[in-house]
Amino acid sequence: MSEPSSILVVRYSALGDVVLATSLLEPLRRRYPKARIEWVTDAPYAPLLEGLPELAAVHVLSRDGWGGTIALATRLLGRFDLTIDLQNKVRSGALALAASRARIVFRRRTALQALRALFGSDPPLVRAHQTRLYAAPLVSLGVPGPGRVKVSLSPQARALAEDALGGVEGAVAIAPGARWATKRWPAERFAEVADALARDGHPIVLCGGPGDREAFAAFRTAYRGAVAADLSPLPIDALAAAVARVRLLVACDSGPVHLASAVGTPALALFGPTSAVRWGPEAPGRSLSLGLPCSPCSNHGGNFCPVGHHRCLADLAPQAVIAAAREMLRS
Hints:
It is a single chain. The protein is an alpha/beta fold. The chain has two domains: 6-141, 3-Layer(aba) Sandwich (Rossmann fold), CATH 3.40.50; 155-330, Glycogen Phosphorylase B (Rossmann fold, 3-Layer(aba) Sandwich). Helices cover 37% and strands 14% of the residues. The chain has helices spanning 15-21, 25-31, 46-49, 67-76, 90-99, 111-118, 130-135, 155-165, 187-199, 213-222, 236-243, 255-263, 276-279, 311-314, 318-330, and strands at 6-10, 36-41, 57-60, 82-85, 103-105, 172-175, 204-206, 227-230, 248-252, 267-271, 286-289. β2, α3 (46-49) and β3 (57-60) form a beta-alpha-beta unit. α11 crosses α12. The radius of gyration is 20 Å and the shape is globular.
């Protein structure tokens, strides 16, 4: 194909996937220095992208039925020389087809694997980090990659983060929540880690979103100290700005880990059913996993352990996490 002068990237969910997909922006800009690059994403994630130097515009996809998708597809109709569909869903495919005849599609499964997945067979992908998987379809265009993951931190986001932290310095952020039950390490064990790090002199802040209320409540019940700040009411861009201000994030395999990578904060990520190879944090972050023979067992986690014991996280001792956290804080 001829050199594209306009490129649309489509990745609208979820938080970690959107953040990791930004690793394509710097390579795309190097390959096509004069191209106009735009992005389609969900409303909560748009502020993370708006203001990035590679992006000329960010389009918000309404998820309220198909009306919003059709309206956005109409606005984007035929405007782009190339669309990069990193979502690879029916909705993203419709947008990509409307925006451009030339498409690059991220496919993590072959057609046969996708068919098997419909019947419950979806082996975890462990061959490479997600950023490299995103970059693979662009090799044919001569796009080097992946580059850095990155997010935009506006002055407003930084101000909200500063207000939430209230002048707290040198804090450790604890993120006990995760969307799927099998990815959660018990909140009581996070509290044991926080107790130890608080005794070392590190203020403890809670990191997550409104969906983590139960994990936060269990943590507060078990934690002996005072929580210096609760970041859960913050919008996602302000949450990222707050994570940029802490010394360390201790978390399950969840979105905050990727925010930490994007803002350069070390993250200690606890892995059980999912692949640390695919989803682990970038340096200076670190993944901690027991490496059981049955793990990883899932691409994204689930509500129940398929073998019934959940030892991949149940057997992960707080002492191991405390030791790893202390080592990272010393470096």
